[in-house]
Amino acid sequence: MSTYPDNLKYAATHEWVRLEGDGTATVGISNHAQDALGDIVFVELPEVGATIHSKDEVAVVESVKAASDVYSPMSGEIIATNATLADAPETVNAVPYDGGWFYKIQISDELELDELMDADAYSDHCEEG
Amino acid sequence: MSQQTSLYQKHLDSGAKMVDFAGWDMPVNYGSQIEEHNLVRNQAGIFDVSHMTVVDVSGNGAEAFLRYLLANDIAKLDEVGRALYSGMLNETGGVVDDLIVYRMSFGYRVVVNCATRDKDLAWIRTHAVNFDVSIEEKPQLSILAVHGPEAIDKVSSILTSDRATISKGLKNFHGFESGSWFIAHTGYTGEKGLELILPSEEAPEIWDKLLEVGVKPVGLGARDTLRLEAGMNLYGHDMDETTSPIAANMKQTIAWHPEDRDFIGRQAVTAHLAENEARTMPILTGLVLEQRGVLREGQKVLCDNGEGVITSGSFSPTLRHSIALARIPMGSGACQVDIRGTLTSVRIVKPNFVRFGKKVFE
Predict the structure, then answer these.
(1) Is CATH 2.60.40.2550 correct for B282-362?
(2) Which residues of A fall within a CB distance of 8 Å from B34?
């Protein structure tokens, strides 16, 4: 697993976004985020159908160590959430960019993507601490 | 510059994530804290706890000194090797530290917390001036704790046969000296196991041998969830210098008899006991949250007869839900915890959640 996949965009608050090419995007948290949190034991996801704005608190991740808010990197409507995480939250630790996704969103403003980082910029961001 | 134990390189070799712990570079985990926790509950894990402070107390006045210094009574240690848990109190009945004291052939060995080392040594030395005692810190010793249902067998398999035989027969809170080693059946996990106090230069080889027989390294992260499940206090969280041991579930560790034994803080904790009997002193109890969410230190506890606070909280890997220790008014019937702005009902239970791999509360 690449630590910073090139096909994703990243927020400074450690969420990733993958554009699906049909006006929707998939959102999760980065490998850096899961590693810093340690073993994840609960994930609280948004309601399907909810309309959210970028930088809203949309989810909460509880690890053994701490609770952490997840901020939406994009505005839009939640169209799906990852049901796997209810019974297997550790999926986020194991495959944060794949089976550990959080939700899918119908994007309302594609221009918001310009505010996100590419893999190189995000890698630098993480290394700065 | 942070300090490193004799096993620093071994931790790196095992892939440890190292963190600062009170000035020491210590392994918080070697990958997954939950997996390490479960290893100790089901098999055997090894902890490097060499950052803890070992203090040897000897001299003609050693017994009299420790009977004055500690709230528990070391006169109960009727033979060499026996261990006692005690609080070390101040004059106002607050807890300076909690510790284990072993009776040794030369006197006594005290193991205190790492984060409180400086103040503990100063406290001990200040009070030792009126006694014929010698106080010697032993930084050249390492401490390996091996715990879990398979721990004693695994450790015994790498020891010399005489040490192995005695180790297998040790009762809880008993230990023995063997050359420059001390081996005791004590621990901080709620599982059976041994603590090996040995010269630091021998520790890396013993560490390797234990890994070779299948014992896995366990970090301080899992140590914390294991002790919380076992309902054991963590100094600086569940009690400190402002907390009475009576309000920290340590009443049973105060030796009230004989009544003429003068120990530091006796007058204060005697008053606290009266408050406890009048039900005006808070208690340290267990909380259980069986639904989603995690109880955390510092969260407010709203009870039907007042307010309290969580002193230690986490997800319990064994029980698969959250548990906590909390200081709340005595006699509370129902409680809610303010978890990130949401009031959530919790159950009050005895502060002991898991022993020998099994749930123990109702």
Answers:
(1) no
(2) 39, 41, 64, 90
